[in-house]
Automatic annotation (TrEMBL):
Gene3D superfamilies: Fimbrial-type adhesion domain. It comes from the Bacteria. It comes from Pseudomonas syringae. Its main location: other. Belongs to the fimbrial protein family. Residues 1-20 form the signal peptide. This is Major type 1 subunit fimbrin (Pilin)/fimbrial protein.
């Protein structure tokens, strides 16, 4: 999945000197619109493989012993590879990025609901945590990640299954979650 990180519009105003006789003046707008986008890849930090699937694996339903248990954590990274044209600096200082994950929330609204299917798991959701260990609610932004200008930035996150009921019922437990990267 690609996210547009940079769309630059630089504008400069130049005008004429005011004179005693008001009359027409000139404003000149100068700028540039670029088609540059920075590729963002989903990376498995364990083996470096690239793809848009985070394999959560299988876990026995009886390992969840109460509401709020988090099990089977998997790390993944969103990799921004800046070739120097992404515009990752502002006034000479490197920018940061925040990531917003968007997906169907569970009944609490705090986690990502698993896709409801006939054979789907019940009583479980997916939680995504940022580099600070803070859970990110659907639609909320992560903590800021510093970006490397002219290099590779791996924004690492962790995903867990989280029990939302006292008893988890076995079944398929998958979710589709989109992401948006915003440079600050």
């Amino acid at each position: 999945m690609l996210s547009v990180l940079g769309l630059a519009l630089a504008t400069t105003l130049t005008g004429t000197v005011a004179s005693a006789n008001p009359g027409p003046g000139t404003i000149r707008f100068e700028g540039k619109i670029t088609a540059t986008t920075c590729p963002i890849e989903v990376v498995n930090p364990g083996d470096g493989s690239i793809g848009n699937v985070v394999n959560m694996g299988s876990i026995e339903a009886n390992r969840f012993t109460g509401i709020g248990d988090e099990l089977s954590g998997k790390s993944f990274a969103l990799r921004v590879n800046d070739d120097g044209s992404c515009g990752l600096t502002s006034g000479g200082a490197a920018n940061t990025a925040k990531v917003t994950f968007i997906g169907a929330p569970d009944s609490s609204g705090d986690y990502f609901g698993v896709t409801p299917t006939v054979d789907g798991a019940k009583g479980v959701a997916i939680v995504i945590k940022d580099q600070t260990g803070t859970s990110i609610k659907p639609g909320d932004a992560s903590a800021p990640y510093p970006l490397v200008e002219g290099g590779v930035t791996d924004m690492v996150f962790n995903a867990y299954y989280r029990s939302t009921l006292a008893t988890v019922q076995p079944g398929a437990a998958s979710a589709d979650v989109q992401f948006v990267v915003a440079i600050n």
